[in-house]
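User: Let's play a game. I give you a shape written as tokens, and you guess the letters that built it. Ready? Here's round one.
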């Protein structure tokens, strides 16, 4: 029901309060704009409340449990005679993390004097949006509208999600009880991380891959270490699986996402969709209507919070008249398996496919002092560079805290660094980041802590 028809004028109207939405709203407010943000659920969106953060919280908790039970602790002189876990209490702790972060986002929104409205919004025309929520209907006229409405689990033909026997990854993270067995279909980072969580906690996990490999585009040598880690946890990996023939239950499907464009009434405006069913945007995040922007998962691009955050800030800056564009050279990917894997840029295979003559460097964690003091020697650092000029093209790290180190490689690639640049930096010793240095030195034929072939 429409309560009156009073129109509120705002500079920037943001639909969605996930990473892309709240980042856009805060940056716009920092730039002096009058901002209203609309979200039907808790602040933080899917990523914070039902996706990334809950997933990482359970990965952390399950890792602590796994570590306490490992034989490696006994080698350090540490013996835990009886270690157990309580799934309900683990879930409660996960939720406490989510609640703390969501409350933090709410405080940031309020502290930046952004008006927050609970509800769903859709276009009336190219300048107005109607929002229907618990407090009735509101009409907003905007100078700039930023769509950050995210995405939902992609449908799979012939299979219906019921939250019990057929689950989305989000539903799997909210299970009230652990199943004895669980099948997970997919080869992306979400499928691998879900398999890792449940296997660590004693669930018999089958990981069903649509093809022959985990994580498309990642170096095969690194993947072998990850797959060996999954086998050590008891995960059974099955290749070339056709979903239509899978009868195991419960089954989690990690089949990607579909942009949440339905319900926006895009037919009321000239906003066009792209071939991925997302909102088509240019490098400034503008849709086919100049004053309407889209960021994050609703554009149909790679569904990563890091991308949404960057695009959200950029859209706000463009709307304020700044000359900026979204043009990262590389996007880091982190998978919290055992061992952890992080990649950025091109693998050797991809670089060769792109026409480069490449040189590769490799350094095993078994030769790194810090890795051994952490009781973890199962890993490797791989660097790929152009043979012509030594410019770094990509890096893959496998081992503890790989995701925390990969940013250094990302910066190197963005800055056009060479192998010599990586080799000449002074690294803290002993440290895991030294593996990146020595892999670069290995590519140059002068690594210190491994034998180099003459």
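Assistant: Ready! My guess for every position:
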């Amino acid at each position: 029901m429409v309560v009156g028809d009073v129109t509120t004028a705002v500079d920037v109207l943001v639909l969605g309060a996930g990473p892309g939405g709240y980042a856009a709203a805060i940056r716009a407010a920092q730039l002096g704009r009058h901002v209203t943000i609309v979200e039907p659920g808790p602040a933080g969106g899917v990523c914070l409340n039902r996706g990334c953060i809950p997933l990482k919280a359970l990965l952390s908790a399950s890792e602590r449990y796994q570590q306490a039970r490992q034989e490696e602790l006994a080698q350090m002189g540490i013996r835990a005679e009886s270690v157990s876990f309580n799934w309900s209490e683990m879930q409660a702790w996960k939720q406490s993390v989510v609640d703390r972060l969501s409350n933090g986002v709410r405080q940031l929104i309020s502290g930046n004097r952004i008006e927050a409205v609970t509800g769903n919004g859709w276009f009336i025309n190219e300048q107005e949006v109607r929002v229907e929520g618990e407090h009735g209907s509101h009409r907003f006229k905007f100078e700039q509208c930023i769509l950050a409405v995210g995405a939902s689990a992609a449908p799979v033909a012939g299979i219906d999600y019921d939250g019990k026997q057929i689950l989305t990854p989000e539903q799997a993270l909210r299970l009230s009880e652990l199943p004895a067995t669980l099948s997970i279909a997919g080869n992306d980072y979400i499928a691998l991380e879900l398999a890792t969580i449940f296997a660590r906690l004693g669930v018999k996990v089958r990981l069903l891959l649509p093809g022959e490999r985990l994580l498309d585009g990642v170096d095969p040598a690194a993947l072998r270490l990850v797959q060996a880690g999954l086998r050590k946890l008891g995960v059974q990996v099955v290749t070339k699986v056709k979903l239509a023939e899978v009868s195991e239950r419960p089954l989690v499907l990690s089949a990607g996402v579909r942009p949440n464009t339905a319900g926006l009434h895009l037919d009321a405006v000239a906003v066009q969709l792209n071939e991925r069913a997302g909102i088509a945007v240019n490098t400034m995040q503008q849709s086919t209507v100049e004053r309407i922007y889209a960021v994050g998962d609703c554009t149909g691009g790679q569904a990563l919070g890091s991308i949404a955050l960057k695009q959200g800030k950029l859209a706000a800056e463009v709307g304020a008249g700044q000359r900026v564009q979204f043009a990262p050279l590389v996007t880091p990917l982190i998978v919290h398996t055992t061992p952890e894997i992080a990649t950025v840029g091109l693998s050797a295979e991809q670089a060769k496919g792109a026409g480069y003559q490449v040189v590769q460097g490799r350094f095993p964690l078994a030769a790194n002092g810090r890795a051994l003091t952490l009781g973890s020697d199962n890993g490797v650092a791989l660097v790929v560079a152009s043979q012509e000029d030594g410019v770094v093209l990509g890096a893959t790290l496998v081992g503890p805290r790989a995701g925390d180190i990969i940013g250094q490689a990302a910066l190197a690639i963005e800055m056009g660094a060479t192998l010599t640049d990586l080799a000449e930096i002074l690294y803290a010793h002993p440290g895991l980041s030294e593996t990146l240095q020595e892999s670069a030195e290995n590519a140059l034929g002068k690594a210190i802590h491994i034998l180099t072939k003459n």
